[in-house]
Write a structure and sequence with these properties.
The chain is of the alpha/beta class. It folds into four domains: 83 residues; 70 residues, Immunoglobulin-like, CATH 2.60.40.1080; 280 residues, SGNH hydrolase (Rossmann fold); 88 residues, Cadherins (Immunoglobulin-like). It has nine helices and 33 strands. Strands 18-17-19-16-20-23-24 form a seven-stranded mixed beta sheet. β21 and β22 form a beta hairpin. α5 crosses α7.
Length: 559
């Protein structure tokens, strides 16, 4: 088949850009400073998938790269656009930018800075220029000593600032809660902070849904616990993009509340509509760039059951079924695409419920057991495309402050209840989320799958080819596969029984069961294979039921 080609390729702010679909790499000049990067629009013939990987330019970098990837069957074509700053095109800032104007001066006397239009650009005593309004008219900042001009900087225009809208959804670790016994003010002082004018947050009251778009705060000025500050700070360091984090999570809320008619989803829709209206207004100094959500859920809802008409019923012997959680979450994701217009969903893999985890897991402080909700979240990662993926497993390594090894990764990441992160843990969570999201979205990332990891039922033991698993009679045994790196572009994994399919089966949630026809000692081969061809094989052996296997049977129930 012939190579797929673009029909059109346009850049909204580069009128002199000329496109030839037989030329596959371009260099495009952009102004100096911090200009808004051009929006790319590309079209191709029917039946050709077109994916635009938007340009990303880290702070202080003078270049940015974008790609347009065409796929038709097994044929793929890439168009590359390299954006390079050119001082001859002027100096541009975005709204709410800060720029340190520091002219070289070795003489006596203190520099004094002035702006020719303080309604557009203000300047501090130490030369930090702040863009406070949009303007298409040049504004000059002058540095003087006494009456002598040392240097000037002309800002040719102040442009609308592209703004990401990231939603923090789910439960208490998404809200930024702490364990009891934690000194909250001291913890909050540890919050990661980006430079002013780049990272913001809007908080939604989880009880009433109350919020105000007049109360959008800069993370550099106001303290807010959770992973949000670290995520947006690291994202800015990697991309130079401004981000508004909308925090609309609630402690202990069941997944049912995030359903289409649920309370929390109603809050999210309301705040989304307000944010969209705010930034789509003709006089808005911002324009929406990317939208996405971070889902942290399942710490406390593993052992609750929802009964229609009766609400939430606590039953420590009955877990939420994996298939129901999976179906509900996929529906939530689809609703978010339609209502919140999200481009991606990032799953923050949560810890297991400490009332259901194995004794060994509790003693180690590693609540990673593959209970139904965690298994369902692995299944979501393994059965959907790369726009919905597990973006962090920090919770698998988080340890309490009394853990015996203070040098271990994750030490002090969770509080004394072994449930909520400390601010140190939240900071690490945010960093990891930002870096994996960058891997997923950057035009220059290598998203090639490199490893298929297969985990045992404790959620932490890595299984090797040929390892044997014991499945208690009448029970089940869970495994979980995941392709690495987390941001790879071929995440789907399929489980099959490649030997012994007549006596053994495995479902999409990694739950292995022997049938009634199997006899003690019978074995089967289980294969996990990624869409990219990575393979792991283990053997399952049927053994007499034990207390542990009966526990597995309870934990592995499905509908």
């Amino acid at each position: 088949m012939k190579k797929p080609l673009l029909k059109t390729l346009t850049l909204d702010s580069c009128r002199d850009f000329e496109f030839d679909n037989n030329i596959f790499e371009y260099t495009v000049a952009i102004p100096d400073g911090n200009p808004r990067l051009p929006k790319i629009c590309a079209t191709a013939e029917d039946g050709v998938d077109v994916k635009v990987l938007r340009p990303i330019r880290a702070p202080h970098s003078r270049t940015a790269t974008a790609k347009v990837v065409l796929t038709s069957g097994e044929n793929k074509t890439e168009y590359v656009l390299n954006f390079v700053q050119d001082a001859s095109l002027g100096f541009v800032m975005q709204y709410d930018d800060r720029y340190a104007f520091a002219p070289e001066y070795s003489g006596k006397g203190k520099l004094k800075f002035t702006s020719s239009d303080e309604s557009v650009l203000t300047v501090s005593e130490d030369g930090v220029i702040h863009a406070v309004a949009l303007s298409s008219t040049p504004v000059t900042v002058t540095a003087k000593v006494c009456r002598t001009t040392v240097a000037t900087l002309t800002v040719d225009r102040v442009e609308r600032a592209p703004l990401n809208i990231f939603y923090a959804t789910g439960q208490s670790n998404s809200r930024g809660s702490y364990d009891q016994g934690i000194d909250r003010p001291t913890e909050q002082l540890k919050m990661a902070r980006a430079p002013l004018g780049n990272t913001y947050f809007l908080y939604v009251d989880p009880n009433t849904g109350a919020f105000s778009t007049d109360e959008i705060y800069d993370f550099g000025e106001k303290i807010r616990s959770g992973f949000h500050g670290a995520l947006t700070k690291r994202w800015y360091e990697l991309t130079g993009e401004k981000t508004l984090m909308v925090i609309c999570a609630c402690d202990g809320v069941a997944i049912h509340s995030w359903a289409e008619d649920g309370r929390m989803y109603g809050y999210a829709k309301t705040v989304s509509a307000a944010v969209e209206a705010l930034y789509s207004a003709p006089d808005s100094p911002f324009e929406i760039n990317r939208r996405g959500f971070f889902w942290t859920h399942g710490e406390t809802q593993m052992v609750r059951w929802y009964e229609r008409g009766k609400g939430y019923v606590q039953d420590s012997k009955r877990l939420l079924w994996d298939n129901e959680y999976y179906d509900r979450f996929i529906a939530i994701r689809n609703n978010m695409i339609n209502d919140l217009k999200v481009d991606f969903g990032a799953i923050v893999l949560v810890r297991a419920n400490r009332n259901r985890a194995r004794k060994e897991s509790i003693e180690l402080g590693m609540l990673t057991d593959l209970l139904p909700i965690r298994a369902a979240q692995y299944a979501v990662n393994n059965t959907t495309d790369s726009s919905l993926f597990i973006a962090s497993r920090v919770g698998d390594y988080a340890k309490m402050p009394d853990f015996h090894d203070s040098t271990a990764y994750g030490f002090g990441f969770v509080g004394p209840q072994n449930l909520h992160y400390t601010q140190t843990g939240y900071n690490e969570q945010g960093r990891v989320l930002a870096e994996n999201l960058y891997g997923a979205l950057s035009p220059t990332s290598d998203r090639t799958p490199t490893e298929l990891e297969l985990l045992d039922s404790d959620g932490r033991t890595r299984l090797n080819d040929g390892d044997e698993l014991t499945v208690g009679e009448g029970g089940g045994h869970r495994i979980a596969a995941i392709v690495l790196p987390l941001y790879n572009d071929a995440p789907q994994v399929k489980y099959t029984v490649t030997e012994g399919a007549d006596i053994c089966n495995i479902d999409v949630y990694g739950n292995i069961r022997f049938t009634a026809a199997a006899r003690l000692g019978d074995t089967a081969e289980i294969t996990a294979q990624s869409e990219s061809g990575l393979v792991r094989r283990v053997r399952a052996r049927l053994a007499a039921a034990t207390e542990d296997s009966e526990n597995d049977q309870t934990q592995n129930q499905i509908g």
